[in-house]
Structure formats: C-alpha cells, structure tokens
Design goal:
Elements lengths: L5 E4 L10 E6 L7 E7 L2 H18 L8 H11 L4 H18 L9 H7 L1
Antiparallel strand pairs: 1-2, 2-3
Helix pairs in contact: 2-3
Length: 117
C-alpha cells in the first residue's frame, strides 16, 4: 500500500523565506518514511512528491504509465546540461510531443512513430 503523502511548510525564522517539504511512506503505516525538503514553493514540493510517488509505483509495476509528454518533461528536468542544450532538446522534441504527447507509453508503436516522419 502506498500513501498519497503530504506537503508541508518547514519551520523558518520570520526573516527568512519559507521552505517546503514532502513525505510519504513506502508501504503504509509502520513502514519506512521518505522525506525531502528545501523546496522554495508549495507547488514545487507537490510536483516533486507526485514524481516520487509515480517512480515508486512504476518500480512496483503499478504505475499509471507516463504519457510521452510527461516522459519528455521528466527527461528534460533530469538532463544535466547547459540551458542552451536543454532548450535545443526541447525544441527538437516539439514535433514528437505534438504528435504523441497525450499517448501513454505502452500505447506507442514504432511503426506509427516511423510513419510520422
């Protein structure tokens, strides 16, 4: 069983910017708890939590199967390169995302990708 997790504000001094964190349990009550912090906004922490939960679901074979656009976004977010390189990769993938972005990865077939030329 995988909990939904939670996002919360970390304590901070009144003069400092607030930081956010998330936590979840891998196997329900009594299991190991994963916690990550240091996010500058609640939305950043929430998005990171969703990515972490999806990663755990995929490892367990019960993921929701990414769409092609989600895969591209995840790839670009993890890509360790100069901003110009990431921008060019994003530009190069624009046509493929436009054609297949909403499709779940298990639905994609190499024949139709090749036919899109």
């Amino acid at each position: 069983m995988l909990q939904q997790g939670q996002v919360f504000k970390l304590r901070s001094d009144p003069d400092e910017l607030s930081l956010w964190a998330y936590r979840y349990r891998v196997g329900g009550r009594g299991s190991r708890r994963v916690q990550r912090g240091g996010f500058v906004s609640e939305q950043d922490a929430s998005e990171a939590l969703e990515r972490a939960l999806e990663r755990v679901r995929r490892e367990r074979g019960c993921g929701t199967a990414l769409t092609f656009a989600e895969l591209v976004d995840e790839y670009l977010a993890q890509h360790d390169g100069e901003s110009e390189t990431i921008e060019k990769l994003s530009w190069l993938l624009t046509k493929a995302v436009k054609a297949f972005g909403t499709r779940r990865l298990p639905q994609l077939r190499s024949q139709e990708i090749a036919a899109c030329g």
